[in-house]
Amino acid sequence: MSQSPIYLDYAAATPLDGRVLAAMQPYLQDQFYNPSATYQAARTVHTALEAARAGIAYWFGSRPSEVVFTAGGTEANNLAIHGVMRQYPTANVVVSAIEHSAVLEPARQYACREVGVAADGRLDLADLVSKIDDRTVLVSIMYANNEIGTVQPLHDVASQLAIIKKQRWADGNKLPLYLHSDACQAGNYLDVHTSRLGVDLMTINGGKLYGPKQSGALYVKGSLVLQPLIYGGGQERGLRSGTENVAAAIGLAAALDFAQRERPAEAKRLQVLQQVFYKLLETQLPAVIINGSRKHRLPNNLHLTVPGFDNERLLIQLDEAGVLAAAGSACSASDEEASHVLRALGLSPAAAQSSLRFSMGRATEAKMIERTVQLLAKFVA
User: Fold this and answer.
1) What is the helix (H) or strand (E) element at residue 18, kind and residue range?
2) Non-local CB neighbours of 87 within 8 Å, separated by 6+ positions
3) pLDDT tens for residues 121-139?
């Protein structure tokens, strides 16, 4: 009987939580009605959809009307960026150099400025302030990086923007200045309360939360007007037309609820495993370099460079030995070029091509980490 693989790519995809599937099940079969229909059975489904919206709003610290359901994080990011920028054709957008491509690609459709990061992946706040001018209407800074796990000082960013906005008003500049954050990797391990973070727009993704893939939500501050991407029946306050995927919305709400309730204990458990990982690497593979901030980091992420070794070859060897890991973002895994995130950190192309990402999750145990490092040391030797 073959042994189950050791899965260490939770940043790419999480398995569907059984409790989430149970919450979704009725809406996949019996409760299939269109929530916009007028008969009682459909109104019951509509009530369930709005309860899911309220459940997400609870963790966002927002009103339910400020939650827009989308088909995943990529759509939510696109809605945030295009939704703002299309209204201001002469304005510009400022993003960090290590954003996910779902932010970088739409942002680059406009006048876009990219902010540098330090060698540990933390945002350079002074550079951010210097990149914002009188025509900047949107700043998009991810909450936690999907490759290196570095957590950004969102509250500090919001504080800087508040100072700039105050000065603008004093100068008679009435252009808005909004803060968006891609929080797709943050929902399991970090606080997503929008007013504590100081964001105007925020993206979450069910596929990273042990919820269904192609489920997501965008927080849109009540006073903020967005231009929709999809036109039609006017669902989601006109921001996302199309019959709602009720099962996915309910699954997303359940997944976020379980993740946030269990967050303190799970984050602590994974921090312990992360330290075990570090110590084993230090003793068995002392030449390995850890990328990203050690202090400001997701507890499930470990990104490392194995100098002189091709990451693709190592990943194949690990895969054959039953360990599933990654070289970086799953969305760009087929790209031949070195990761833009690692280049922004100052890594050489050679170092970037020698880098691996291990991301842990709910099923990860210490013995899996021990086995992984043991195998890695063997392949490197």
Assistant:
1) helix 18-28
2) 225, 227
3) 999 999 999 999 999 999 9
d(CA 211, CA 15): 8
342 dihedral zone (left: phi>0; alpha: psi -120 to 50; beta): alpha
Q: Please report, for the chain, how many H helices and E strands are present, in that order.
A: 12, 12
Please give the Cα distance from 21 to 277 (Å, whole number).
32
Query: What whole-number distance in Å separates Cα of residue 85 and Cα of residue 79?
Result: 10
73 and 118 Cβ atoms separated by less than 8 Å: no
Domains and CATH numbers, the chain: 6-14+263-380 (3.90.1150.10), 18-259 (3.40.640.10)
Of 21, 125, 290, 331, which is the active-site residue? 331
For residues 191 and 60, what is the distance between their CA atoms, to the nearest angstrom? 9
Q: Read off the tokens for 126.
A: 């002074």
Residue 52, SS3 per DSSP: helix
Helices (H), 285-345: 311-320, 340-344
Tell me the pLDDT band of 338, cut-offs 50, 70 and 90. Answer: confident
For residues 291 and 90, is the Cβ–Cβ distance under 8 A?
no
Told to judge if 331 belongs to the known catalytic residues of this protein, a careful annotator would answer yes
